[in-house]
Design goal:
Layout: E1 4-7, E2 12-17, H1 31-34, E3 38-43, H2 60-73, E4 79-84, H3 86-97, E5 102-108, H4 117-141, H5 148-153, H6 155-166, H7 170-182, H8 187-192, E6 196-202, H9 210-215, E7 223-228, H10 234-237, H11 239-251
Parallel strand pairs: 2-3, 2-4, 4-5, 5-6, 6-7
Antiparallel strand pairs: 1-3
Amino acid sequence: MLNYEISGKGKETLILLHGFMENLTIWDDMVPSLSKDFQLVKVDLPGFGKSKPTAEIQTMESMAEDVKTLVEHLDLEKFHLVGHSMGGYISLAFAEKYPDFLKSFTLFFSTYFEDDAEKKKIREKSLRVIKENYQAYAAAGIPNLFGPEARKLKKDKIELAKQIAYSADIEGVLACTKGMILRPDRKSVLENFDGKILLLAGRFDNAVNATKTIAELPERDNIKAYLLDCGHNGHWEKPSICTEIINTELLNEI
């Protein structure tokens, strides 16, 4: 069973899935506002926080199954799902297989595209670096995930992101890296899902091609996208704006 924390007393349930090298604490700046109208379920994905790795290769599909097990344990029938980065990939896998559970899903600085050939090669090469010196790998990469303004003004958040990353289980980091290499394109999920789909993207995101992700969204009335002036970590760079968008969009009917 995945580790989780529940807060808030809203009638609507919102499940929050963190990204790669993160844990459930990344949402802390957004929790006070979100918990006013939602029951929040923050989740530690396998290998992060207090959740143990579950396989040598943790695919997006297998982690979606882990989320499904938790959902059944909590006896949830209809809820909203928000996933940051890798958490968004898992949200897409969940929406593909279990759409009837979802009122909405949000790609939070994430994308529905698979990795291109170059990105897959980068991930494959990173496996060796992670094994040899994971802390150096995390320390070098994390600052680049923040936008230029945040790199100057939010050094405390960059340090926090590093400390969270250092606490991860290296086997889980490796397993998720392998799983992300294997993930398929899931644009079809956006074309077929009937509930609300929300996308938040960063203009200066070095991990996700925000411009392409928004430009190639299916033209459907149930999809709404926002492009913010930040990098990959909207939960730390623009928490108030992100919270306002989620509250407004998910609590309003399509």
